[in-house]
Structure formats: structure tokens, C-alpha cells
Design brief:
Layout lengths: L1 H27 L3 H8 L4 H29 L3 H19 L7 H10 L4 H10 L6 H39 L1 H13 L19 H16 L3 H10 L7 H26 L1 H21 L3 H28 L6 H30 L3 H16 L10
């Protein structure tokens, strides 16, 4: 009983830290594509390049930290240092005079995702198979609640503070997140692994899972393009962040229910819902031009995001080797994130060379293929 109470307390600490960090990051996210393309004068290919580099570094840092976390049996240090990295990077954004300066700070910001695999491993380890999906859903809901507050502040303050001062303000919450993790999370003791790490530890089922999600990730380009799409069909730079707010509210509402649903009906079925939702977003955005229509699309986009976040991590944590759980989660995030680099870059090229609908056609096709292939992944409990 005491252990269960302690686990619940630590889940709440992780969730509070995530809330604060996402509050800061989502003050920036809705204005990021506008900051890069309108304020600093870059084009969509540059935006895709910067976002793609960031996504690739998320994957590299996740794999690196996941492996080291398992090797040295330490989790916490990767979490709080990751939050500090993100805070420092946002300070760099605020003082960047031209878009080229954004690249190293984007790298530092996304390298802060070294916290991802160790934190997810800690969440998985303090959970049982009966509540693991719900716990990941609760964490994601707190992420999104912080995002709602951050986006709301962004919408309210942009006119008064401007881009630079708003981004400067957004750097502060990450430092509080680092403080909370450092002082209130206890490092757990682990047994030393009885077997050396090898790629052969991952069976065919896990490899297929990674392949299918990697294929889907190739079409899951950055959210920046959805916001630019809204701008290019006629909405103002002050209206565009509202769509991002709608997306985040939707994601928040559905995160915990999808986590519970994943516990009840299975992780794979919820993952399939996410693929189908993304396909629906891409197909609908090709045809829709009205304000209400775009609002509905961003609602579905939020549904997709909440479903994929809870189902991917939960399923990955259960079909992997227990003694290399952080490494497995990191490897999974490494591959899918690395593929996200060409995804955003390809989207930028297709947009520039063929038109803004072609990234949507490309993503729609890959989403449907992934939906078919995921049926061959088994939800067996290896760990």
C-alpha cells in the first residue's frame, strides 16, 4: 500500500514537471512557424529543415539516454538536465537575429528530450499492466493542460510582448521543472543486467512494430505545416494560434480516456484509431476552407495525437525486454524520430515544388498503409 502511494506521488511529480515544461514550450509552438517564416524571413523548406533537424535530434538523444540509463542504472539525471537544456535553448531563440542562429538552439532544445526514454521507463516501472495505459494517459493529459495554458498566454500576450519577449518568458517554466524533478524524485536501485545488450534482444514482433511506426512517421510531418496551411488559406497570424489551442484542448480531453481505453480494449486498437484519425485529418484538410471546418480538423488532429502518444509508448514498453526497457523505448523513439527529419523536409519540398496539398496526399497514403500493416503486430506481453 505504501509503495502504491509512493508511486502515485511520483507520477504526480512527473506530471507537474511536464505541465510546467509544456506551458513554456507551447507558448512558442503556435507562433514558431510564423516566427521562422514571417518574423525571420525563412521559407517553408528552411522551416522543414529546422523542424526536421529538431525531430531527428529528439530521436538520437532518446536512444543515447535510454541506453546510458539502462547501462548505469540511472534515470533521474537525464530528466532534470533535459529540462534545463530546453530552458537554455529558448533563451537562445529569443536572442537569435537571423534564422541560421536558430539551428544550434533547436538542436539544444530537442537534445533536451534526453529526458524522454528514462522518464517513460520510470513511468512504466512504477505502473502495473492494469494501470500503465492510464498512467501514460494522465501524464499526457497534464502535458496538454500545460500546453493549453501556454497557448492561451501566447494568444493573449503576442500583441503586447511581440515574438522575442514572449519566447523569453517561455524559457522560465523549464527551470522550475528541473528543480521539481531534482528535489522530489528518488532514484530507484536496479539490478545489474544479466545479459549484454544486442540488437538480437529485439524479437521480430518488436522490429515489425518499429518498422510500421517508422513508416507512419515518414508521413507524420511537423505540426508547423498544418498551421502554415491555415495561414495560407486566409486566416490571420493572430487566428492561427487559436487552431493550435483547439488541437491541444482536444488532445487534453482525449488523453486520459484513450489511456483507459488502451487498458480495456488493447493498445493496438487505440494505435489504429490514431492512424485512421491522422488520415482523416490529411484528407479533410485538402477539401476544407471554412473556419468551422478547419476547427473540426484540428479537433481530430488532437484526437490523433492523444491516441498515438498513449498507445505507442504503452505497447512499446510491454513488448520489449524488461532489463533494457529504457534502451528499447529510446531505440524506438530514435528510429521513428530519425525518420521524422526527412518527413518534414519532404513535406517542405513537396509544398514548394508541387503545391501545399501534396504533403497531405503523401501522408494520407502512408497512414493507410501503416493502418494495414499494424494488424500483423502482436500484443504479447514479453515483459
Amino acid at each position: 500500500m505504501k509503495n502504491e502511494k509512493e508511486n502515485k506521488k511520483e507520477l504526480h511529480v512527473f506530471s507537474l514537471a511536464s505541465f510546467l515544461n509544456d506551458l513554456g514550450s507551447d507558448m512558442i509552438y503556435p507562433i514558431w512557424p510564423l516566427f521562422v517564416t514571417v518574423f525571420l524571413g525563412a521559407d517553408v523548406v528552411v522551416l522543414g529543415l529546422i523542424d526536421g533537424i529538431g525531430d531527428a535530434l529528439v530521436s538520437i538523444s532518446s536512444a543515447f539516454s535510454g541506453f546510458l540509463s539502462d547501462k548505469f542504472r540511472r534515470r533521474k539525471i537525464f530528466v532534470w538536465t533535459g529540462y534545463i537544456s530546453s530552458g537554455v535553448a529558448r533563451l537562445g531563440y529569443a536572442f537569435s537575429p537571423i534564422w541560421t542562429y536558430l539551428i544550434p538552439f533547436k538542436a539544444l532544445d530537442r537534445a533536451g528530450k534526453i529526458r524522454g526514454a528514462p522518464r517513460d521507463a520510470m513511468i512504466a516501472e512504477l505502473s502495473s499492466k492494469e494501470n500503465r495505459g492510464a498512467n501514460f494517459g494522465f501524464l499526457r493529459a497534464m502535458d496538454n493542460f500545460g500546453a493549453i495554458v501556454g497557448i492561451t498566454l501566447s494568444i493573449l500576450l503576442l500583441k503586447y510582448l511581440g515574438f522575442r519577449n514572449l519566447i523569453l518568458l517561455a524559457s522560465i517554466p523549464s527551470f522550475f521543472s528541473a528543480f521539481i524533478i531534482y528535489h522530489f524524485i528518488k532514484e530507484k536501485k536496479f539490478e545489474v543486467q544479466k545479459r549484454a545488450f544486442s540488437i538480437n534482444l529485439f524479437d521480430k514482433n518488436f522490429r515489425l512494430f518499429v518498422f510500421v511506426n517508422g513508416l507512419f512517421a515518414l508521413g507524420a510531418f511537423s505540426y508547423s505545416f498544418f498551421l502554415l496551411y491555415a495561414k495560407d488559406i486566409g486566416f490571420s497570424i493572430y487566428t492561427v494560434p487559436i487552431f493550435y489551442l483547439i488541437f491541444t484542448v482536444s488532445s487534453t480531453i482525449f488523453s486520459y480516456p484513450f489511456g483507459k481505453m488502451a487498458d480495456r480494449i488493447g493498445r493496438k486498437k487505440v494505435l489504429m484509431i490514431s492512424y485512421l484519425s491522422f488520415a482523416l485529418v490529411c484528407g479533410s484538410l485538402i477539401l476544407t476552407r471554412s473556419f468551422m471546418g478547419v476547427m473540426l480538423i484540428f479537433c481530430i488532429y488532437g484526437l490523433y495525437k492523444s491516441a498515438i502518444d498513449v498507445s505507442q509508448k504503452t505497447l512499446a514498453s510491454e513488448i520489449c525486454p524488461l532489463d533494457y526497457r529504457a534502451t528499447s523505448l529510446g531505440s524506438f523513439q530514435f528510429i521513428t524520430g530519425l525518420i521524422a527529419f526527412p518527413a518534414s523536409f519532404i513535406a517542405g519540398l513537396l509544398w514548394k515544388l508541387l503545391g501545399m496539398n501534396y504533403p497531405l496526399y503523401f501522408s494520407l497514403f502512408l497512414s493507410l498503409i501503416s493502418l494495414l500493416l499494424i494488424n500483423f503486430v502482436k500484443e504479447q506481453k514479453i515483459c
